[in-house]
C-alpha cells in the first residue's frame, strides 16, 4: 500500500503543481492586460452538462462524456457506476426490475459483445425500466448504449493510455485508439484497444452439514490470478449518407481474450471419517475470439417524420480452453497426486434480421410495427484427460467429458400505438408476440436430446400525465421473459477440485415477469414505486453431488418471486457543481418448494447513490462517486452490504488537446459480494472479492483537423436512437 499511496501523492502533486503554474501564468497575463488596456476581463464559468436526465415515462439518460464514467476501462465497469444499475457476478441488473438486456444504438447485442465496445466512443447510456413492445421481450429492463456521432468534416481522433495499479491484483495497462474521418456524405470510423497485465478474483466458501449423522464442513478458497496476455478490441465502420433522409452503414467489430495465469484452489474438509485437504493449481490457457458484422439502413419516409429501419447482424464466437490441472490430496495423512487436462472447444453463431417502421399519423399520434428473426447454433466439446503422478499416462474420463449442441430460432412481431388524450394525457399500448423453437443434445450424465417450442404474447401499457410544467406522472405495465443463457444450458464441467464443479442445466425454463410501476416528477424530484412478479425465476445454488462431499454449482428455477421497490432521485446543476443523488428501497421475496431451501426472514434493502463533479474554472475538475447497497434477506437466503467510493481529478492542457485524469477507485475496497443460504440441509456462505480497489492514471490526446459542417445528419441519427425508446 505504501507504493500505491506514494503514486497517489506524486500524481496529485504533479497535477496541483501544473495547476498552480497555469494559474500564475494566467494571472501574469491578466495583469498585463489590465495595465495595458485598463480593462479587467470577466471570468466566464461554463455551465456543466447535467449527468442524468429524467424522463416522465421512467427512463433515465446518463451522460458519459467528460464525466467520471468515461474513465472506466470497460463497459462493465462503466455500467457499475450508473445510478440504479447493479453489476455483479456476470449479471447486469436495474434496481427493482432485475436483469437487463443490452442494446447498442438501438440494436440488441449479446452480453459477450461487451468487450468489443470501446468506452471512449460512448456518448450516453439510456436506462429504460419500462420498455415498450419495440424491444425484444428478453430481460426485465433495457440498457441502450449510444455511441458518439461525428458531424464534422475532416480527421478527428483520440489516443488514450491508462495505467492501473492495484495492491490486490497487480498492474495493468489499457491502450485505446480512435480515428474518425468524414468528408461530404462519407464517414469512416475505426478503433483499437488492448489491455495487458494482471487481474484477480478471490472466492471464499464454506459448506456445512450440521447433522451429526452426516456431519461435514468444507472451507474452500479459490483464487483466480489472471494474466491478460492479449485482451484487445478492434473495429471499423463505414457510413454513406444519400441525403438528409436516408443513410446506410456497415460495421465490423471484434475482440480477443487471451487469458493466462493460474487458478489456485484450496479445500479443507472435515467429516466423521477424518480430515482431508486438497490443493488444486490450474494453469490457464484460454483464448476467445468474438466477431460481429452489422449492416443497417435508415430512412425518413415522409414529411411528417415517419421512419424505416432495416438491420441485420452476424455474431461469431470461437473459444478454446487448454488447462493443465495439478491436484494434490492429503487424506488421513496419506498423500496423493494426479494431473488432469481440460481441453474445450466451443463455437456460437448467431444471425439476426429486423425491420421496424414508425408511422407518424399526427403530431401526437404514432403507430410503430416491426418484425425480427434470429437463428443461433452452439457447439461445444469437452475432453478431460486424467493421469497419476507415477506413470503420467493420460486417459480419457467419460464422467467429466461431454458434447453439447444447441439450435434456437426466435421469430417476433410487434405493434405499438401512441396518442394523446387532450392536453394533459398521452398513452401508448402495444403487444409483442414471440415464438421460440430449440433443439438440445448433450451426452453429459447420459444422453439427453429433446426439442421444444413455445409462443408468448407480451402486452404493455404506458400512461403519461402532464399536470403542469413542474408536475408529471406515469403508470406502466410491462410483461417480459428471460431465456437461459447458452452457457447456463450447457452441462459441461468447469473443474475446481475433486468435490467442486460448475455445470450447466439443460432443464432450465425461461423466466416470465409482470412489472407494474407508478412514478411522478415534481420540479427536479423523480419518484417511483413498483411491484414485479416473477414466474420460474432463474437463480443458482451449490447442490449436493453424487458423492458424500461433492457439490455442483448450477443454475436452477425457483417457484416464484415478488419484488417491491421505491426510489427517489434529485439532481443539482449549478455553475461549479453537478450532483446526482438517488435513494431506493427494495423488498424481495423468493419462493421455492423443490430444492429444500430453508425459509428465512424477508428484510428490505437500501440503495444510496451520489455522483458529484466540482469544476474550478481554468484549474481542474474534481469528481466524487459513492454508492451503498445494503443488506438483503429474500426468504431463501441473505446478501451482505457492499459499497464503493471513487475520487478523480482531471485537468486539460494545450487548449483541451491533452487531458490527464487520476482516479482512486473503491478506496476502502468494500465492493465484495457475500451472503449465505441453506439448501439440502447444507449451510453455505460465500465471499467474493474483485479487482475494484486501484489507482488509475489516464492520459488522452485529441488530434485532427475536423471542422463543423452545415450538412445535417443529426435528424437521421436521432431517428435511429428514437426508434429504440
From TrEMBL:
<feature type="domain" description="Outer membrane protein beta-barrel">
    <location>
        <begin position="301"/>
        <end position="701"/>
    </location>
</feature>
<protein>
    <submittedName>
        <fullName>TonB-dependent receptor</fullName>
    </submittedName>
</protein>
<dbReference type="InterPro" id="IPR041700">
    <property type="entry name" value="OMP_b-brl_3"/>
</dbReference>
<keyword id="KW-0998">Cell outer membrane</keyword>
<keyword id="KW-0472">Membrane</keyword>
<dbReference type="InterPro" id="IPR036942">
    <property type="entry name" value="Beta-barrel_TonB_sf"/>
</dbReference>
<feature type="signal peptide">
    <location>
        <begin position="1"/>
        <end position="23"/>
    </location>
</feature>
<dbReference type="Pfam" id="PF14905">
    <property type="entry name" value="OMP_b-brl_3"/>
</dbReference>
<keyword id="KW-0675">Receptor</keyword>
<keyword id="KW-0732">Signal</keyword>
Amino acid at each position: 500500500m505504501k507504493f500505491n499511496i506514494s503514486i497517489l501523492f506524486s500524481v496529485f502533486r504533479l497535477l496541483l503543481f501544473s495547476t498552480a503554474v497555469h494559474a500564475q501564468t494566467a494571472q501574469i497575463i491578466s495583469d498585463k492586460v489590465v495595465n495595458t488596456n485598463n480593462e479587467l476581463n470577466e471570468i466566464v464559468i461554463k455551465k456543466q452538462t447535467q449527468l442524468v436526465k429524467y424522463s416522465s415515462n421512467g427512463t433515465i439518460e446518463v451522460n458519459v462524456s467528460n464525466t467520471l464514467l468515461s474513465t472506466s476501462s470497460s463497459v462493465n465497469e462503466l455500467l457499475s457506476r450508473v445510478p440504479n444499475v447493479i453489476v455483479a457476478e456476470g449479471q447486469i441488473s436495474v434496481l427493482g426490475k432485475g436483469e437487463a438486456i443490452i442494446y447498442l444504438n438501438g440494436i440488441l447485442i449479446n452480453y459477450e459483445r461487451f468487450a468489443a465496445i470501446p468506452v471512449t466512443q460512448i456518448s450516453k447510456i439510456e436506462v429504460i425500466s419500462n420498455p415498450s413492445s419495440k424491444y425484444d421481450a428478453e430481460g426485465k429492463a433495457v440498457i441502450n448504449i449510444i455511441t458518439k456521432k461525428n458531424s464534422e468534416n475532416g480527421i478527428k481522433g483520440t489516443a488514450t493510455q491508462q495505467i492501473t495499479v492495484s495492491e490486490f491484483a497487480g498492474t495493468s495497462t489499457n491502450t485505446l485508439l480512435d480515428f474518425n474521418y468524414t468528408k461530404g456524405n462519407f464517414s469512416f470510423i475505426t478503433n483499437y484497444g488492448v489491455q495487458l497485465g494482471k487481474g484477480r478474483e478471490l472466492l471464499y466458501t464454506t459448506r456445512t452439514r450440521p447433522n451429526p449423522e452426516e456431519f461435514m464442513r468444507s472451507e474452500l478458497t479459490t483464487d483466480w490470478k489472471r494474466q491478460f496476455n492479449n485482451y484487445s478490441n478492434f473495429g471499423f465502420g463505414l457510413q454513406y449518407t444519400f441525403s438528409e433522409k436516408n443513410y446506410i452503414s456497415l460495421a465490423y467489430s471484434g475482440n480477443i481474450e487471451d487469458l493466462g495465469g493460474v487458478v489456485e484452489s484450496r479445500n479443507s474438509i472435515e467429516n466423521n471419517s477424518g480430515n482431508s485437504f486438497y490443493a488444486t493449481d490450474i494453469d490457464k490457457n484460454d483464448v476467445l475470439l468474438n466477431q460481429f458484422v452489422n449492416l443497417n439502413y435508415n430512412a425518413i419516409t415522409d414529411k411528417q417524420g415517419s421512419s424505416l429501419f432495416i438491420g441485420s447482424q452476424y455474431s461469431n464466437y470461437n473459444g478454446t480452453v487448454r488447462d493443465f490441472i495439478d491436484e494434490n490430496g492429503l487424506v488421513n495423512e496419506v498423500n496423493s497426486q494426479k494431473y488432469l487436462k481440460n481441453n474445450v472447444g466451443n463455437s456460437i453463431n448467431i444471425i439476426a434480421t429486423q425491420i421496424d417502421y414508425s408511422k407518424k399519423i399526427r403530431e401526437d399520434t404514432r403507430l410503430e410495427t416491426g418484425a425480427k428473426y434470429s437463428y443461433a447454433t452452439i457447439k461445444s466439446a469437452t475432453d478431460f484427460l486424467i493421469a497419476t503422478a507415477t506413470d503420467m499416462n493420460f486417459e480419457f474420463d467419460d464422467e467429466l467429458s461431454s458434447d453439447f449442441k444447441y439450435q434456437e430460432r426466435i421469430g417476433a412481431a410487434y405493434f405499438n400505438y401512441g396518442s394523446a388524450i387532450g392536453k394533459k394525457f398521452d398513452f401508448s399500448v402495444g403487444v409483442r408476440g414471440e415464438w421460440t423453437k430449440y433443439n438440445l443434445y448433450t451426452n453429459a450424465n447420459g444422453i439427453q436430446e429433446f426439442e421444444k417450442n413455445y409462443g408468448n404474447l407480451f402486452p404493455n401499457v404506458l400512461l403519461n400525465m402532464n399536470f403542469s410544467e413542474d408536475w408529471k406522472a406515469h403508470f406502466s405495465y410491462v410483461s417480459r421473459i428471460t431465456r437461459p443463457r447458452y452457457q447456463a444450458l450447457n452441462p459441461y464441467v468447469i473443474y475446481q477440485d475433486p468435490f467442486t464443479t460448475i455445470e450447466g442445466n439443460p432443464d432450465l425454463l425461461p423466466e416470465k415477469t409482470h412489472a407494474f410501476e407508478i412514478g411522478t416528477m415534481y420540479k427536479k424530484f423523480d419518484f417511483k414505486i413498483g411491484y414485479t412478479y416473477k414466474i420460474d425465476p432463474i437463480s443458482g445454488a451449490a447442490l449436493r453431488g453424487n458423492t458424500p462431499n461433492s457439490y455442483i454449482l448450477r443454475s436452477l428455477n425457483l417457484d416464484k418471486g415478488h419484488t417491491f421497490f421505491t426510489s427517489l432521485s434529485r439532481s443539482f446543476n449549478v455553475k461549479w457543481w453537478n450532483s446526482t443523488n438517488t435513494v431506493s428501497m427494495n423488498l424481495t421475496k423468493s419462493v421455492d418448494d423443490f430444492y429444500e431451501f430453508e425459509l428465512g426472514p424477508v428484510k428490505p434493502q437500501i440503495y444510496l447513490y451520489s455522483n458529484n463533479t466540482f469544476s474550478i474554472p481554468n484549474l481542474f475538475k474534481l469528481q466524487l462517486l459513492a454508492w451503498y447497497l445494503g443488506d438483503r434477506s429474500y426468504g431463501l437466503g441473505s446478501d451482505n452490504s457492499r459499497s464503493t467510493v471513487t475520487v478523480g481529478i482531471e485537468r486539460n492542457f494545450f487548449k483541451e488537446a491533452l487531458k490527464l485524469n487520476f482516479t482512486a477507485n473503491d478506496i476502502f475496497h468494500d465492493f465484495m459480494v457475500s451472503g449465505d443460504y441453506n439448501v439440502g440441509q447444507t449451510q453455505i456462505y460465500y465471499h467474493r472479492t474483485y479487482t475494484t480497489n486501484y489507482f488509475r492514471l489516464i492520459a488522452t490526446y485529441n488530434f485532427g483537423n475536423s471542422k463543423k459542417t452545415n450538412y445535417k445528419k443529426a435528424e437521421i441519427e436521432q431517428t435511429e436512437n428514437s426508434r429504440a425508446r
